[in-house]
Amino acid sequence: MKLHETPPILANAQLLHWVFENLIRNSLDAMDKADGWIQIEPTHDKRHSDVVIQYADNGSGITRENQRKIFEPGMSTKAHGWGLGLTVVQRIIREYHHGSIRMIKTSPDGTTFEIRLPVA
Length: 120
Hints:
Strand content: 25-35%
Structural class: alpha+beta
Radius of gyration: 14 Å
Number of strands: 4
Largest sheet: 4 strands, antiparallel
Order of helices and strands: HEEHHEE
Shape: globular
């Protein structure tokens, strides 16, 4: 395999599209810098037979008081929306794809999530 080549996963493409659309919208809402970026990097964890997708941005980060609540229904820092985005993202990853998502880093320099999906 070449760099960033990963084995296939069994996935619902529309649901995963929605997962990344939601993460990207959240990142764009958190951008507070002139040069914002989003990085999506897939790798293969052979030991656990997972495809690991690291999703990172350089937005404003998640405050300490909100970090434990980000996947809870109704949690939002925005004036618009229902606060269901990351709740649904987590449900799609866990229940439909038997994977996991977690925030692995956040600071005023950005946030990084790790998504793990089982290899087909």
